[in-house]
């Protein structure tokens, strides 16, 4: 690990100012992703700004009936919150499908949204990787790409977005609330928050230097039957090969979001529109434009089968 300096921020404004003014500064929350990357020297911050003591660890009701989740709310606390379990069960289930109990106790809402890909070549510093070292090439394109993305990919990068939580938040049309170094706040629809790789896979979100996530806002509950189905290589402590978040309304409508297959949490309106025609039709709509490799072509069939399982779960609950 490279040497770095450390400060414990005392206000959100001061944290954002410090991050914008010190070259190479990074926020640290639970540290469950950042510290691993620092040990491998994939991330080499010069200065760490600890954001754990800023009072951003509360879950509050909003005036229009939604919930505001502080950026420092731990994944365990969010999954267990009575209001989340009752009104946003898909989010609670997605969180509990991620990582392990110990990790969820540390991992935060903001850090989870910004966790980096699990592409094996991103972690192997002997291999080329455009995301880790822009312009160096992509080891995965001609390598082992079984776990990687099939939607939203580019010639520069086919890495998948790893978060389970973000898939449920995408389904629920959440917004990411931020503050920049000048104290200006903005609310970014989660659909616009993560970027596709294009020619610049190192740029993963629309956050500006120094901009800090303060909370994530969920709109008012949408009701319905909530399902989160995650398919992975072992029953726990593994990232999704494919995951499906779904909410089924009483009137036959449904909405779907997907993990493990997209360069960002994936949702398309055409898939929602196909809900009445069953799993195969939803899969076809969701997979429009999919670009697979020899190793990950199986994900197309897996999406359809996972959706079939999701429909069965909905029927069982009804
Ligand atoms: C073995 C293992 C298995 C895992 N399995 C899963 C899984 O199955 N599913 C899943 O979804 N996740 C999984 N994870 C990932 C885990 O969920 C993330 O590591 C965690 O959510 C990151 O949160 P953190 O608070 O620890 O982030 P940190 O490591 O502290 O930070 C991550 C990034 O976010 C930035 N950051 C943090 N907070 C803020 C903020 N408020 N504003 C702006 N930037 C911020 C940091 O600068 C850093 O770049 C796994 C992790 C491990 C180690
Ligand atoms: S897929 Fe992306 S993260 Fe993986 S090696 Fe290629 S450029 Fe790097």
From TrEMBL:
Any single Pfam family the record assigns to this protein: FAD_binding_5
This protein's UniProt keywords: FAD, Flavoprotein
Name of the featured protein: Xanthine dehydrogenase family protein subunit M
Signal peptide feature range: none
Record bears the keyword Flavoprotein: yes
KW Flavoprotein (keyword) present: yes
Source organism superkingdom: Bacteria
